[in-house]
Amino acid sequence: MSENFNHAQIIKDPGDNYKILGTRPVRHDGVDKVTGRAIYGNDVQLQGLVEGAILRSPEAHARILSIDTSEAEAHPGVLAVTTSADFPDLGDKIANLGEGPVNLAHLAANCLAKDKVLYKGHAVAAVAAQNVHIAREALDLIKVEYEPLPIVTDVLEAMKDGAPLLHEGLLTNLVPGGEKAEAPSNISDHHHFKRGDTEAAFEAAHIVVEREFTTQTVHQGYIEPHVATAHWNQDGQLTVWASTQGSFSAREQTSEVLQIPISKVKVIPCEIGGGFGGKIPIYLEPVAAVLSRKCGRPVKIQMTRDGVFEGTGPTPASFMRIKLGVDEAGKMTVGEAWLAYDTGAFPGGVIGPGVMCVFSCYDIEHAHIDGYDVCVNKPWTKAYRAPGSTHVAYAVESVVDELAEKLEMDPIDLRLLNAAREGTKRVDGPVYPRIGLIETLEAAKNHDHYKSPLEGPNRGRGVAAGFWFNIGLKSAATAHVNADGTVTLLEGSTDIGGTRTSISMQLAETLGIAAEDINPKVADTDSVGYTDITGGSRVTFATGLAAVEVGKDIISQMKERAAKLWECEAADVEFSDGIFSQGDNSISFKELCAKLSRTGGLITARASVDPQGFTNGFGVHICDLEVDVETGKVQILRYTALQDAGKAIHPSYVEGQLQGGSVQGIGWALNEEYLFDEKGHMLNPTMLDYRMPTALDVPMIDTVIIEVPNPSHPFGVRGVGETPIVPPPGAIANAVKSAIGIRMTELPMSPPRVHSAITEDGNGAS
Amino acid sequence: MRDFEYKAPATIDEAVTLLAERGSEARVLAGGTDIIVQLREGLRKADLVVDVKKIPELMSLAWRDDGGLDIGGAVPCHVLYNDAKVINAYPSITDSAKIIGGWQIQGRASLGGNLCNSSPAADSIPSLIVEGATCRIAGPGGERLVPVQEFCTAPGANVLTEGEMLVSLALPPAGESSGSRYMRFIPRNEMDIAVTGAGAWLRLGEGGETVEEARLALSAVAPTPIVAGEAEAWLQGKPATEESFTEAGDIARKAASPISDMRGPADYRTHLVGVLVKRALNGALGRARGGDRNPVIPSGINLC
Amino acid sequence: MGKKIHVSTTINGEAVEFLCEARQSLLEIIRDTLTLTGAKEGCNNGNCGACTVLMNGVPVDSCLVLAVEAEGAELETVESIANEEHLHPLQECFLEGAALQCGICTPGFLVSAKALLDGHPEPTEEEIRFELSGNLCRCTGYDKIVRAVQAASERMKEVK
């Protein structure tokens, strides 16, 4: 049956000899998801459930002088109203919540504003009522007195002396080093890395290209809005049903914001309708919790779509200056990057990864990087799929393309000449282990897409590379073996892309049984061991590893049972290909399961892992497009995404990550942006005017998976999920240049911008 | 949104009576794809919603004896573009109907509703204008007819007075040797509001080489959809060629007085008028000469 | 608060009655009152298609239909696409072709795609993309969804 579906080209590692890995079983949660039975956050139904709504600030920057909730509380059908006055005072507490330190006061103030509102849409109060209509009526009855303050939304403006300050005491933090600036500003962090002598190297370079780029605020765009249900029981036990990328992380954040013991908080992950990094932070959980405590009923809040745009965590807008120098042969000798990312209302943005990723694809001896995180009156930025990397890749890949043109070199050859490889030291310090960038570039060069001629006026082809780290972090898993030879697996990674199946496949491979014989469950925080977030391209790697370790635990226990049956030593029992054997004795996994009850009972196994050896994902994308020069509109004609995946456990889901990330990148490149007026109000907080690609906007996305195994994982897994969003804007900008001879240095390359560039260029198109 | 009363009258008289009684507190509900959004977001208010879909005249699609067509005010878009006779007679109207908002919107939204919503960017209005539609309005004072190009008066406003409602749109018999096309420019390929829209209708002279009559209407470049009268007049008698159409496009630009907003800058919209008028005229010409009248999927270069 | 209105309608072949306020959308009633939670709220203003249901055989955004308008109508939701024992070829092809990642848009796509194939059994790729442009997906990039619809069209042809 599945021969009907086009499959990616997979360039396999020659040592590959797996039975289950690399096959394409139907996902275990599939039937529920195609029949409408799967329970997502808003599908939760509970006895006595009431609904909530959030009041959001109409001002982009203002002091809150007073909030009068009395009329709202008196409105018929309203059960509770809350503001930040109901949250405990958190002082300067910092907590480490898995992906780095978090200022808890900021986290809490972002859930419900305290003293000041810092962006239009900042949550100020919330209401719980019999139904959502009454809750929303009650919002209109809450009287908030604001004292408007001057606003700043542009990242460069916010860096200037005299810019309106969002946080009076914010002193720029130097990274690395930790020194603080003397005077307050909106710059929360200044990252700085230098090696070699860049000035001399630029002097000596044969060709130098320097360009400036700007990008706009862009949102993850998950189709499911944020939603949480909280029930604060009379015994102090808080249960939260959440659409979240990390139940344990949500539990910790909630317990910290409310200052209640973690043991009192249980988070039940619902099926999740997309996250891309945006559903790692909490917004609704503590608010719903307090409302529930006040009214004694479970409270469900789902954000409105405009609430999602205005009140959650988009990716930064940015200004970037990139300067690269090459020698006569095209070897990159020196690079300089000056990067400013806005972080929205609070410090703690993604300039760090931006600085680490900017030159990450290339081996450049002399380099100087300055990166700034800048507060502005916009929503607090959060992770969006390879956060910070897409911005710098757009800029650097554009400059590399320009160098290739000046050198009259093939763009892939120039990248091959300079590509990072095992042993290359990144500017911020780490040395690459075995990586697959060169293999991926070569696969791109040899691909039919790259070799086919592209004919016709105003058509062009562009190529770009991209990088993302991938992380490890902690995962746990528990399993119990059933008498019929199946294994129930409890794991804690919320499943946004089919991971419960890729994790099951790794357990199945370890045990020598079919993937269909694993019964995976994404478990709540009471039912499985601590597991870090679903993000960072880590789940197939780390939770998969936990499943492998669980498998080893099962095998070890079952060897003892076989030994009991055969009256020998467990150490003499071998296991291979699903069969236990000792001398002439042999028994299959399934047959032995049937005998477990009378050899001591059914088996339970567990593992907790904190793996190192997580490693990098490199992608190369090729894009053909046509520009309608009369209107400036770009149509993508053909698109190929190539990536080193280490080992594609379930190739369909790896392809899916490449395709999905590519289309998000295409949207980012062509039409997605937050538009603001002079009052700092977002003009387009709807899916009508925040323009994500529809099915009619993109062609098929061809994929190539190159398998360069990660030596630190038993199956060679590298994370794959994030890298695919990194190359598209660069590839598209390079294709536009190829099509019409114009380099677009601002994202998105929307029709009016492209058309304006064409008009200014004067030469017009070919 | 605040709750409201809901009534579904069975006759025009009943509906008019309700609307007259309740005045500005009442709003008509046809397909709902504009009004429900507006009520939800507080952009429009209603204490009474009058659902007109139980009134036979509002839902009827009827060919008259003179060969023209009466389209009931609440007839959904999908009914129009699934009707081969409608496509053949008034292709610019089915062009519009096929691209408004996506398939799900077209299952409910009506041309009448699109007209009464009176957005300057309405996709249906340029094509209704060039096809020569007349609005049949019923009110407390009886019935009256208004040419569609006179219906809208300002963004979101039209000639309907308290108690009045649109009953149907009357289209004249389709002419021989005529063809029409509606095109709009949007940044994506679907689901967007028009940045600029152009409806073009041509009747060719004997021999099919010259323009005997041209009609041009534009959306999203003025407070209401407008007729590009000077360009229409200029085209009369001119050869039906790309050159003429380009010139007509340039002239049509003068009729535009767009604003800059989040959907596009003003000068860009004016520029697009020229491009779209030229392309729409080309499309109308192809159909006047016997080409395919089916709605075009707007996914390639030059198709939008 | 308005008086509740009594509505009689048919959903997935069964006659049902419910009470609702005039301001409640069909989506709200289907999900909260009839507990058919397959249709999802993605935007609540007709721009994403996650709430797509069939109303008298026609795909509509149920967030833009008032529940009272369902009087006398025939409604079909994703819950009715499979028959008792088997999945519909579209559902099979979505699963085999991995045409879903988070799955939130999937019910809307299945309803739209079923209506498409019922009315137009052999659509071209362009036609599939055009008719499904009212359903947004953020995870898959649409490639596998389009291929699954194509495969289902083939499979349904074979069965005939």
Protein described:
The complex is a heterotrimer of chains A (766), B (304) and C (160). Chain A contains 20 helices and 30 strands. The model of chain A has no long low-confidence stretch (mean pLDDT 95). Helices cover 34% and strands 23% of the residues of chain B. Chain B has helices at 12-22, 35-41, 56-59, 77-81, 84-89, 91-99, 103-106, 111-117, 124-130, 229-235, 242-253, 266-288, and strands at 5-7, 26-29, 48-51, 61-63, 69-72, 134-139, 142-147, 152-154, 157-158, 165-171, 178-185, 196-204, 211-219, 226-227. The relative contact order of chain B is 0.13. Chain C has two domains: 5-80, Ubiquitin-like (UB roll); 89-159, [2Fe-2S]-binding domain (DNA polymerase, domain 1, Orthogonal Bundle), CATH 1.10.150. A five-stranded mixed sheet of chain C has the order 2-1-5-3-4, sandwiched between helices. In chain C, helix 2 packs across helix 5. The longest helix of chain C is centred in the C-terminal third of the chain and has 17 residues, at 143-159. The radius of gyration of chain C is 16 Å and the shape is globular. Chain C starts with a strand and ends with a helix. Chains A and C meet through helix 1 and helix 18 of A and helix 2, helix 3, helix 4 and helix 5 of C.
Average of the residue pLDDT scores of chain B: 96
Question: Can you tell me the CATH class of the largest domain in chain B?
Answer: Alpha Beta
Low-confidence stretches of chain C: none
Indicate the radius of gyration of chain C in whole angstroms. 16 Å
Summarize this entry quickly.
The complex is a heterotrimer of chains A (766), B (304) and C (160). Chain A has 766 residues and is α+β, with helices and mostly antiparallel strands.
